[in-house]
Amino acid sequence: MTSATAVAGTNIALVKYWGKRDEALNLPATGSLSLTLDRLGTRTRVAFDGGTGTRDRVTLDGAPADPKVSARVSAFLDRVRARAGIDRAATVVTDNSVPTASGLASSASGFAALALAATRAAGLDLPPAELSALARLGSGSAARSIFGGFVEMARGARADGSDAIAHPLEAEPRDPWEVRLIVAITAAGAKAIGSTAAMTHTARTSPFYAAWIAGVDADLAAARSAIAGRDLGALGVVAERSALRMHATAMAADPPIVYWNPATIAALARVRALRDESPATPAFFTIDAGPHVKVLCGAADAERVAAALAGVPGVLRTLIAAPGPGARIAEAA
Fold first, then answer.
1. 297 assigned to some structural domain
2. How many domains does the structure of the chain reveal?
3. Which terminus of the chain faces fewer neighbouring Cβ atoms within 10 Å, N or C?
């Protein structure tokens, strides 16, 4: 096999990780827990066809990738080439159904799809745990997008990162939990500071960082229990707490990192208002490293929640996503 195409969904962390214990290996400072989505993600084709001669050729959303993106992809492919014992340059064609570098976890789906497509094109058939560890080297959150549904990522303790991998919390349940995640887009374009740089700056300068790290294990335990019991309210409380604490830590950095805009704050208020109305709508927000708001709710309430968020001034559009599958091969040759 010399080429393969893979598809992976983005994932939204409900218990966040923010900071790394080893930047070179992308080892997280804490564990994390997320939900992989069905309709937002990445499709990537990799062919070890010689690229442009000695260099990889990388296309992103129909145009040549930015040099920094190309360099990041090539560095990742070098790991695959070394493992497979090949030296040919590659052509990589990637298309995102989620805005790139905007705070919607495009790197998670991007490197999960790249990891699967590249290894298969190189003749490797890695087990899921090894694929998760490989994807993590491209983007920490990509380790979770290898799997579908609710996924937990381990912090790990080994220096080589071999135990910093993800695993699904519900392995193909016969009776899937009918939850939805509403995405409220509150800005266009890329965010001002990337997640990796923001994490590093926060860890070095925020007086709240140590307290943030200390609280994550309890949030993970509470989230696991809520998912096992299918308790939306309990999971929502954890998700909101984790998001607010992560952003508070970043806002306390010196100088501060503030991803929110007025529409972000208005959307949070609207979600809380939905819970206070009669009848109440169980809906709970989370926010990643960006200005967009994601809202966890039951499937039966999804249209109502999406309509409420669409009416918030500054919200550009809303999307309804369901739990989705893990990374998978779309075609191979």
1. yes
2. 2
3. C
